[in-house]
Amino acid sequence: MRYVSTRGTAPALDFREVTLAGLANDGGLYLPDAWPSLTRDEIAALAGLSYVETAVRVMTPFVGDALSEDELRSLCTQAYGRFSHEAVTPLVQLDHRHWLLELFHGPTLAFKDVALQLLGLLFEKFLTGTDRPLTVVGATSGDTGSAAIDALAGREHVEIFMLHPKGRVSDVQRRQMTTVLAPNVHNIAIEGSFDDAQAMVKAMFNANAAGTGPLGHLRLSAVNSINWARLMAQVVYYFYAAVRLGAPERAVAFSVPTGNFGDVFAGYVAAKMGLPVAKLIVATNVNDILHRALSSGDYSAKGVVATPTPSMDIQVSSNFERLLFDLGGRDGAAMREQMAGFEASKAMRLTNAQLQGAAGLFGSARVDLDDMALAMRWACERAGQVIDPHTAIGLSAARASDLDVPVVTLATAHPAKFRDAVERATGARPALPARIGNLFEREEGYETLPATLEAVAGYIAKTAA
């Protein structure tokens, strides 16, 4: 298995190299040079398997010879052994048609744990015996940061710098990052938006690839969903859920609360591998660039509106480039030109091939605050489930669909991470699980910096070991 960049000029890499690299050195994102496939019999054989065994069978084609099957199984056993539910990602029935896929049973109560617990172990495995440490630089709109920090805190050969937009994540999300005081963990609150943070991370990677900027002495890597290994790990739960609802004999639809497009792109990968996915519903909040792109071809960024769903308060969805590349015939030169235009003007039109290619598998919805609250109340009062506001965006979009197959909404975060929003909508204030412990009594530590590349890159250059 080799991996190629969406922008066509970076060298092809194997799985080990692409995991450690993160972003391609031409500014593009890596994805497999061809999609592996599972036969109907192979998908049917997943029924009844544990999550770990499902993960091994789904991910083995992507890993190639970078890991043996036994090594991959050992890493998955370690990663998912920390989850609080034996099923790892259990399904919960809401009514005759709707289901929740609970992805928040990991150590930081969010779906990011599913991938990042494994990614931390992959970093450690691939860096063993090397004499040059890895400096991980990431941006978070809330959950990636805490999950990445938990996965990497105290690990050898890795140092992590995580940027978050000051005042635009929940108190629980912030404290899950800033109360981890391990010497290899550095939190940075920037005085700007998530899009500002993400743009700075990409700029630092691009400068390093060009041999410029103050971080040239560092070996940079990424934990954001620009890192292929993260998306690979997320493909697994689509298979795990679908086979329990009748796949491959019955198609299943998924509604995905979406910001950076990584989680729903993993569903696209599952479909390309042969999973019978009836529809992928891209559920956005009022920051609806993806809904506009998929429904009308208008991919133009507007000002970010702060909402009770901060992980979706995004206008530039990095992983969307992977989809556009695949739908556009995998033409790296055309993708490079298209993204250069977007980066210059923050606006572009999808091509006819991209728009028509997405139309069969993807649907989309824009969910406002009223409909989000209604979905939270419906889940609580009619199905006995307290859900977080991001999951409610997905559920609202799912319930508005007219699909005649099981519809699975990805429950991306534990409701206790957004206690105020849940209480406003339902009257119930969810308690933090015992495994989080005394989160609000722990000491915090982080730097506050202006949202400028000079300030953030300068701090990292000065601080990194």
From TrEMBL:
| Reaction(s) the record says it catalyses | O-phospho-L-homoserine + H2O = L-threonine + phosphate
Q: What class of enzyme is it?
A: lyase
**GO process terms (BP):** threonine biosynthetic process
Annotated Gene3D superfamilies? 3.40.50.1100, Threonine synthase, N-terminal domain
**Per UniProt, what is one GO molecular function of this protein?**
threonine synthase activity
* Cofactor or coenzyme needed: pyridoxal 5'-phosphate
Q: Which CDD domains match?
A: Thr-synth_2 (cd01560)
EC identifiers of the protein: 4.2.3.1
Supply the Pfam families for this chain: THR4_C, Thr_synth_N
Is Mitochondrion one of the keywords UniProt gives this record? no
Pathway terms, separated by semicolons: Amino-acid biosynthesis
Any idea which residues bear N6-(pyridoxal phosphate)lysine here?
K112
Q: What keywords is this UniProt entry annotated with?
A: Amino-acid biosynthesis, Lyase, Pyridoxal phosphate
Q: Which residues form the Threonine synthase N-terminal domain?
A: 2-80
Family that this chain belongs to: Belongs to the threonine synthase family.
Q: Which NCBIfam families match?
A: thrC
Please state what the protein is called.
Threonine synthase
